């Protein structure tokens, strides 16, 4: 073994030191651990089973740029809700930000082989998602946030995005709008795709014009740019639905700047409600969901899995559209 | 050993199973792990040294109600900034919400004895803080967010709250205000105490009236109640400084409701800037700091400690007061 050679001790001494057994001096033990650290030594899977009885941690890997997380209240309300349930059982949350799904999968493999987590939460499900198959193969207990469908045999907790979107289109069509546009989130996310399908289907059912959709990365910058593009087009929409609150607020700012008053000339709907939506002038019509409660629900479902249950699929409440002052009849 | 008796096997078999060594059948091994799990068995400290070479996790314990975290952008911008630096080294963040400092200390003891983390971040420092002494005793590497002072031999990263507060008082005094009040955060936090001292000293230096201070839990509800109390008093203040953005926004809403126009009859300053401050009507004069960058700075300092360094104390940039439309001269 490399560690023994480098530290100038016997293999037996290394084994005793790494296993925390008596028989080596504190100085030797320190030296061995130091060498092990230098070699970036990882205990193998079998040895890690030592700690496998319980890790008391749930894993959450976020494959999004770290900078965008601070402005997305969704994740942290979700995490707060999760911790509200998990902390009572003294279960911690192991959080890791990665660049992409490939890196995410590597983290799952490592965490599970080292039994760092008892289970993981899978978020931002894609239409074709290799992570689901991998987790099933590994046997790493997991709960999918966002369903139904496309989550294999893994249990899932979700809200009905399609019904929520239909509510929004019905509200706007009821006010008399016929040209509705949508500023959407990342196109390869399953929930974006679900909302898109529901958006088109609801518009068609109401006999509205074929709706335009612009995809973004959820940032205020891209929300503003999308709004500018839509309002500058030959036949601008009379209503825009935004996939989050940050983009809706940026959209209102752009409309105001362009001399397009909200709601007189443009109605605006935000998917996620927030203090920002409520305190803006005008306050925004927004889709309200209790993400904290959703996180707590997910935690309970996950605890059931940890306690040996099957993990039932669960549908959370459908988000509710709160009518405020950013939506009205379109200009005549 | 209880596990051996319960599983009906020898102690040797238990040891082999828990240490992942050959010599027991897979079925026996499963049974032993199952029993260990039922008994909520934790490996002892010495055995945990097996994984001590590196845990690749930083611990963060939050002794605040989980529900309030989702509305406090500070923590999550801090976490985003931390992860931006740590994820490049594949270091995860182990997050745990607890009820109080006693529970927090118990978590540190457990994490360190089991080598779950390589280091921890200590936040919300108190004037008298037993956690500092404990971490020094344990030898658990730690970085204190918030200094200088009161952090023993532990390295600390901080921003100069006193100078920031002096900026605010100078701005208001310069506009002609003489009755300034403050809606503060939790009274036993060190940074609340620092701001209070600086607030009183700056007011005295400018020859202002003895300023009134109301302490709260940072929530919008308590911010609103404090504002109602101040504005309903015989000699209401002409300016209020709030310790976070959520309370400042709630304060503006209360003032508007009471027929006290902002800024004509009441100037308002928010400690933390946010999209909420910028997009509110009127936009709020606010103290801007880049919490994401602060988190990244803290992470770099922590990595230096992990790499065997001493961990230098570091002062971050002083937050900057951005003048917007919520502050003006007091009514004549």
How would you portray this structure in words?
The structure is a homodimer of 332-residue chains. Chain A is an alpha/beta fold. Chain A has 3 domains: 2-41, Orthogonal Bundle (434 Repressor (Amino-terminal Domain)), CATH 1.10.260.40; 52-159 and 292-315, 3-Layer(aba) Sandwich (Rossmann fold), CATH 3.40.50.2300; 161-290, Response regulator (Rossmann fold, 3-Layer(aba) Sandwich), CATH 3.40.50. The first copy, chain A, has 14 helices and 12 strands. In chain A, strands 2-1-3-4-5-11 form a 6-stranded parallel sheet, with helices on both faces. The radius of gyration of chain A is 25 Å and the shape is elongated. Chains A and B meet through helix 3, helix 4, helix 5, helix 6 and strand 2 of A and helix 3, helix 4, helix 5, helix 6 and strand 2 of B. Strand 2 (92-97) of chain A pairs antiparallel with strand 2 of chain B, so a sheet runs across the interface.
Average pLDDT for all residues of chain A: 86
Helix and strand run of chain A: HHHHEHHEHEHEEHEHEHEHEHEHEE
Which shape of chain A, going by the Cα principal axes? elongated
Annotation field: number of helices of chain A: 14
How many strands appear in the DSSP assignment of chain A?
A: 12
User: What is the fold-level CATH name, i.e. the topology of the largest domain in chain A?
Assistant: Rossmann fold
Describe, in short, the structure shown.
Chains A, B: Residues 1-52 form the HTH lacI-type domain. Chain A has 332 residues and is of the alpha/beta class.
């Amino acid at each position: 073994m490399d560690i023994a050679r480098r530290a100038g001790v016997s293999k037996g001494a290394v084994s005793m030191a790494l296993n925390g057994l008596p028989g080596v001096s504190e100085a030797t033990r320190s030296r061995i651990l130091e060498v092990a650290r230098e070699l970036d030594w990882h205990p193998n899977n079998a040895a890690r089973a030592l700690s496998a009885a319980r890790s008391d941690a749930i894993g959450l890997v976020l494959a999004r740029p770290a900078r965008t997380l601070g402005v997305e209240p969704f994740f942290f309300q979700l995490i707060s809700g999760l911790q509200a349930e998990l902390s009572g059982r003294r279960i911690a949350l192991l959080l890791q930000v990665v660049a992409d799904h490939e890196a995410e999968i590597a983290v799952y493999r490592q965490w599970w082989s080292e039994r760092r987590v008892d289970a993981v939460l899978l978020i931002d499900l894609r239409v074709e998602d290799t992570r689901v198959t991998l987790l099933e193969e590994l046997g790493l207990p997991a709960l999918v946030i966002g369903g139904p469908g496309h989550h294999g045999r893994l249990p899932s907790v979700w809200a009905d995005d399609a019904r929520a979107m239909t509510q929004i289109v019905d509200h706007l069509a009821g006010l008399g709008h016929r040209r509705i546009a949508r500023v959407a989130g990342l196109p390869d996310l399953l929930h974006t795709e679900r909302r898109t399908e529901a958006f088109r289907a609801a518009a068609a059912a109401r006999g509205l014009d074929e709706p335009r959709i612009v995809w973004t990365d959820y940032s205020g910058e891209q929300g503003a740019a999308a709004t500018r593009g839509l309002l500058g087009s030959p036949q601008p929409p009379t209503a825009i639905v935004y996939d989050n609150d940050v983009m809706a607020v940026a959209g209102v700012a752009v409309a105001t700047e362009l001399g397009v008053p909200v709601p007189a000339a443009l109605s605006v709907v935000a998917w996620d409600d927030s203090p920002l939506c409520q305190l803006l002038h005008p306050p925004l019509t927004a889709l309200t969901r209790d993400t904290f409660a959703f996180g707590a629900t997910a935690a309970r479902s996950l605890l059931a899995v940890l306690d040996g249950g099957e993990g039932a699929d669960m549908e959370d409440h459908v988000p509710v559209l709160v009518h405020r002052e950013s939506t009205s009849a379109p200009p005549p």
